[in-house]
Design goal:
With about 190 residues, the protein is mostly helical. The protein is built from ten helices and no strands. About 10% of the residues are buried.
Length: about 190
Amino acid sequence: MAKAMKPGKAKPAKAKPAEKAKKKPGIKKKIAKQKALPLPGGLKLKGAKLPKRIRKVEARVLEPLSVSPTGADAMILDRLWETVEQRRLAGDITTSHSARLMARGTAKVAQKFGEEAVECVIEATIGNRAATVLESADVLYHLLVMWVDAGIKPAEVWAELARRQGISGIAEKAARPQGIIRAAGTTKLP
């Protein structure tokens, strides 16, 4: 005997597999036609839209940069180098981080630069833009400390960049002296 159902609470009949396919006609065809790049980590696209977490990352990574501080330009690197050089000359390790770092030796200066570079790479890799900006500032500061420690002036680096301007990176690498390649023990220099 069939069970009596309450009015207004009728359950819909279960859809057969053929009926389910009719509900979303052509979704797979639409996705295939989009010629989208493959998703990271072999993720599968379940619907017509990317997963929410990927859309959020893309929105953060692809948002335009908003640089508004006044007086912030590349000249700040020259001014920062001068400040670090003054701290080195003053040699006051009690009040100057730069002086303290250089007093610990070149190896420590280089190590600190490497640590900051790795932190910057990690933040960039995970797509954390704000932290990448902060870590980039740390990298630039520690690079300048390393220059001061090595007796390198920014103008020397700027001149080298100007010399390379307009030269293909591939051509520049091909023109490297053979001594460098022999010393490296490989022909596959980056």
